[in-house]
């Protein structure tokens, strides 16, 4: 049900991509294969010793193939001085 | 469609979803579709110390193509019903109602 994404339209969402990156931005559009259009997006880059680095991306389109997870998040648990011991592993895609 | 029907019987139950990158989420199954995309409510990541990036998640939609396993509580599985459904699915067309 792509309709389950519809309820997040125009809201700020959390996106995890297949290569393990985290992109946060306002969801302005999507389709039935989860291609996304995000406005005012930024990537959250975690590292072990420094806090979160926010990389501004602006208007961003994500192809559905590369989407792993999309969801709502709790702003209060999203601190900028978080560090992560290791990056989220990528999902290996079968190459033909 | 047997798996879709099966997962639909688990709506509202607590399940764990393991992704192909070994990250595991638990949460309440909200909905599932024909691609086995799942939507979970009140998501928690297993091993939050390793993945602090993901602790802020609340409700999420997980694409079916990135799922490796879905773990389900055995008490919510009606094995007999599932066996019956599997038999019906594999029955020759002539015997189907």
Q: What do these coordinates show?
A:
The complex is a heterodimer of chains A (96) and B (97). Chain A has 96 residues and is mainly beta. Chain A has one domain: SH3 type barrels. Chain A has one helix and five strands. Chain A is globular. Chain A starts with a helix and ends in a 23-residue tail after the last strand. By secondary structure, chain B is α+β, with helices and mostly antiparallel strands. In chain B, 20% of the residues lie in helices and 35% in strands. Chain B has helices spanning 2-8, 79-90, and strands at 14-19, 24-32, 38-45, 57-62, 67-71. Chain B is elongated. The mean pLDDT of chain B is 92. At the A-B interface, β5 of A face β2 and β4 of B. β5 (67-73) of chain A pairs antiparallel with β4 (57-62) of chain B.
Q: What is the approximate shape of chain B?
A: elongated
Please trace the helix and strand order of chain A, writing H or E for each element: HEEEEE
Supply the CATH architecture of chain A: Roll
Radius of gyration of chain A: 14 Å
Q: Can you tell me the residue ranges of chain B where pLDDT is under 50 for at least 5 consecutive residues? A: none
Strand content of chain B: 35-45%
According to DSSP, the number of beta strands of chain B is 5
| Mean pLDDT across all amino acids of chain A | 90
**Derived structural class of chain A:** mainly beta
H/E element sequence of chain B: HEEEEEH
Number of domains of chain B: 1
Low-confidence parts of chain A lasting 5 or more residues at pLDDT below 50?
none
Number of domains as seen in the coordinates of chain A: 1
What is the fold named in CATH at topology level of chain B? SH3 type barrels
Q: Portion of residues in helices of chain B?
A: 10-25%
Note the total helix count of chain B: 2
Which sheet architecture does the biggest sheet of chain A show? 5 strands, antiparallel
Largest beta sheet: strand ordering of chain B: 4-3-2-1-5
Share in helix of chain A: under 10%
Record field, number of beta strands of chain A: 5
Task: Briefly note the structural class of the backbone of chain B.
Answer: alpha+beta
Subunit structure (chain A): LSm subunits form a heteromer with a doughnut shape.
Keywords (chain A): mRNA processing, mRNA splicing, Nucleus, Ribonucleoprotein, RNA-binding, Spliceosome
Subcellular location (chain A): Nucleus
GO molecular function, one term (chain A): mRNA binding
